[in-house]
Design a protein that fits this description.
Length: 213
């Protein structure tokens, strides 16, 4: 059992709720999206009831994901701004993967890899949202010419597939850095985890002074 004094709050309750709502939305749009895109995976549509129901629910879950990500954007954008040492961090990725990141730069709230992933996720979400709204039948699709609809669907599928790759990397990293996941489940991380991976964040007055719940 970890002593309460040995942990610090990493993600407050509203952020955790927004994150897991995002995961729920992402899971259903991914399953249905793969079912629409690959004829061989058409059977996945049964996961949401019937293909017709999947067609109706896909954009609804997309909006659920966008709602969760909007909260994450508002809560985390300031922590994800570029800083001057970020370039040095990217130049030393091999050392970082060996677990020597504390010798390279003093990482703050997020490391530069997380920050880059964050902005890529947000950028792709904007593309998915706009192209998804354009192609949404029966509400908006009829307002646009066919060539534009085709372009929107092409960009929508491409961004969806890129997003799946990014999220795969994100989940892999969450498990790779032992002790990270509990920040998004219980809310807290151990001080030793923070000292190793985010020492500058641990020293911030807001982190030191926080209550562990
Ligand atoms: C089972 C799936 C997932 C797991 C296990 C997971 C895990 C995590 C963890 C542990 C963090 C906190 C990282 C830290 O404190 O340093 C985090 C943050 C975050 N996650 Fe996830 N995540 C998952 C799926 C997703 C999905 C599907 C999205 C978006 C579509 C997403 C977007 C984010 C964002 C924007 C953050 C905040 C910034 C960041 O740490 O990159 N996550 N996630």
């Amino acid at each position: 059992m970890t002593n309460q004094k040995d942990v610090v709050l990493r993600h407050p309750f509203p952020v955790r709720v927004a994150h897991w709502v995002t995961v729920l939305g992402f899971f259903f749009v991914t399953v249905s999206g793969l079912g629409f895109f690959f004829p061989s995976l058409h059977g996945l549509l049964g996961f949401l009831g019937t293909p017709q129901l999947a067609q109706f629910l896909h954009p609804v879950f997309g909006l659920v994901m966008v709602a969760g990500l909007t909260v994450l954007l508002l809560r985390n954008a300031l922590h994800c701004l570029p800083e001057k040492d970020d370039r040095k961090w990217f130049q030393h990725i091999p050392d970082i993967l060996k677990g020597n990141e504390h010798h390279v730069v003093e990482v703050g709230h997020y490391n530069p890899g997380q920050k880059m992933l964050f902005w890529k996720i947000m950028g792709l979400t904007v593309v998915l949202l706009i192209t998804g709204l354009v192609a949404w039948r029966p509400y908006f699709a009829h307002l646009f010419p066919i060539p534009l609809l085709r372009l929107a669907l092409f960009l929508h599928s491409l961004s969806g597939i890129l997003m799946m790759f990014l999220i795969f990397v994100h989940i892999y990293m969450g498990f790779w850095y032992k002790g990270t996941l509990r920040g998004m489940t219980q809310g807290t991380v151990t001080r030793s985890w923070a000292k190793k991976h985010h020492p500058r964040w641990l020293r911030e007055p807001a982190t030191k002074g926080n209550k562990n719940h």
